[in-house]
Amino acid sequence: MPSSVNPIAIIFTPDGRDAEIATSLLSETGIQSRAVANIVAFAAALDDGTALAVVTEETIRSSNLKALADWVAEQPAWSDLPFVVLTRRGGDAERNPSAARLSEILGNVTFIERPFHATTFISVARSALRGRLRQLEARSLLDTLREGEGRLQTALQAGHLGAWELDIARMSLTASDTCKSIFGRRASEPFGYDALLGAVHPDDLDRMQMAVRHTLETGRDYAIEYRIVWPDRTVHWVDIRAQLYRQRNTMVEKLVGVSSDITTRKLWEEELKRLNDTLEERVALRTAELKASNATLVDQVAQRERAEEQLRQSQKMEAIGQLTGGVAHDFNNLLMAVLGNLELLAKHCAGDPKTLRLVEGAMQGAKRGASLTQRLLAFARRQDLKVEPVDLKTLVAGMSDLLARSVGPNVRVAMALPDTLPLTLVDGNQVELALLNLAVNARDAMPDGGAVSVSLRHETLALTQKDLAAGGYVVLSVEDTGHGMSKQTLSKAIDPFFSTKEVGKGTGLGLSMIHGLAVQLNGGLKLTSTVGEGTKAELWLPSTLRQAEQGVTVAPNSGTGEQAPLRILMVDDDALIAMSSVDMLEDLGHLVTEANSGMAALELLEKGEEFDLVITDYSMPGMTGAELARAARALLPQLPIMIASGYADLPPGAGIDLPRLSKPYSQAQLEAEITKVVSARH
């Protein structure tokens, strides 16, 4: 029912001058009023904004009062609308037998016998208005109370806090559903104080009951943490906070409070304490050993600072890696659009040597940018790797001439490659690039010439070490006789963009890229160096018993040998990438439909449009490429789908195994991947 800022009086006195007189008198008291012509309009006009109702007895006595009685009965709890009944027989039962019936129907009734004095009417009206205003104030207070209670419930739910009350006299516990769940009970289960005591861990029960007694005796807040045992016998921790509450004008006391599950926090505290105790034991043992050997004592707050510094360094590198990987991924998208458009532009400039030279220059710059993003992705451990069993001996031996040319005539290259080595699970191309980088770094560390030793060996770790899991490894070692690095320089060697070379002589991403590659391959990079003697870099790569896979040759399509035009659905939320990719596909002769979101693509498929292939970006808002692929396969199980992404691994839970197209890609790469997918389909 609507409410009004200024309550008004509703007048139902259709006979004579009663309505006119009542309106005039109410106006003198500052009460606005409105007269109605019949009982239906009278009942319909009543609402929360009505100050009082003025009626004549003879009018309503002869009317059907059902609608009016229903309205009176359905008033909210705070409302009791005052009715002023003008009568010629008074309001007592002896003179006016119908007064009792009107009082029963209308509830809050005041009878004024006519003729009446104006002062009497005004006094009754003002009294009725004051009562109604108090009712409206009570409604406002109730609304405020309900809103406050709603906000409290929202806060309790958001914080997963369970509310409870304990009646001290009866020791009767009332618990919310959340509170029950914290104690391992379902919402439908009874959970009284005896059940709560039974849930407390036996070793904590006395302490818990003592805390309750202390609060009851002193009135201080109740705050305690203790263990509880769930019905499934698992042990959990709870934090209980409460205050003693005494109801006004009574001796009834209650403990009113909240409970929260702190099991996870306690487990972390216990684990941290265990680790701290272990660390302190190691420090104490090491200190004792150093004292026994009369070595230099190393202060213990120092050892801890070094451990904290290592942790901060690890966290910093991880954060930089996350940021770098994201930037490289976005930059790949930009390069995708640049390279795609330049490649198509070059075809249109074939007869213009000057323009073609400018385009080629732009393409070279964009390709250098793509190479840089690959290094960034390698550091961030997000580059796209083709991991397979590789014979490192054959790989390294095959690079001997390239390494010799790369280091120049002043540097001797020696190789120590054993006859028998297990295969390794690596990306051969990336390992070649890493070895070449290490050799070039060694050359730069020996400006006056020297020697570089490249060797392979097999190592088995029985226990997990700092950065390496237990198991077998093939170690690729590159050692030089250069100027070496200090401890401070060595500690920063794998940091991204850190370089000891002159400005413009290096990106500072070489070692960080190699380190990222090693970690992504479940291996590691170890660096040792001595100033004036040289540096050794060891790339630890996991060995495998798997055999190298034989290449599978896909038979070409029958007919002319050219790829027949395909109906391709290209899905990418980035307009630049979508435009360049569509242009490349159309230049290859395909019929392309563009969709800028997963939902838009799915709508096309649901409408029955037919396609020979779907190429979709993975990272799209609303619906990822993986989600689109699953939905499309549900509609068309045989529809070929290709995922385009700049990341090595799709996020956990992607749950798809589809052909991948790594960004940025050229038109030739795009054509080759399409050929593979279509050939596999046939």
From TrEMBL:
SMART domains on file: HATPase_c (SM00387), HisKA (SM00388), REC (SM00448)
Keyword hit for Endoplasmic reticulum: no
Residues annotated as domain PAC: 222-274
Domain Response regulatory, first and last residues per copy: 567-678
Keywords associated with the record: Coiled coil, Kinase, Phosphoprotein, Transferase
Catalysed transformations (reactions): ATP + protein L-histidine = ADP + protein N-phospho-L-histidine
NCBIfam families per record: sensory_box (TIGR00229)
This protein's name: histidine kinase
